[in-house]
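Revision sheet: structure tokens.
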Amino acid sequence: MKRFGVIVGVAVLGLAALTGCGGEDEPAAGGQAAGTKLATAEVSNLGKIVVDGTGRTLYVFDKDTAAPSKSNCDGDCAAKWPPLTVTSGTPQVDGVDASLVGTVTRTDGSKQVTLAGWPLYQFAKDDKAGKADGQAVGGVWWVVGADGKKITTEPAPGSGY
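Predicted:
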């Protein structure tokens, strides 16, 4: 019985330590965030675009599909364009129509956030909030508006917000 009590105590302490780690909207590996959030921000000539809870720009990929939702960015692609994922449910929204937000299951089993069916990504070279250096890369990566539509405006030199 004493042994059982020790095991339960260790388990409770371990769980408490795990739940105490990481704050809301703190980035984790693979574009995942605790308390994932979608919001909007104004970016120079790109207008109002969708960003994550830390202000990082989100993108859609022309080689994906929205109906049905399907991500076609894996491996090296996903290393350069980390998918925005959630562990459960859908993200909180601020300035984005919640009815447009969903998830799609990726080939690795993770849940990627979608907007109007389009899977959402970050750009690894956007190293801080306010950067939109992924806009128009390869003619297939685009920032997305709050309505879920891609914005194909070419970026202004030194753009940011």
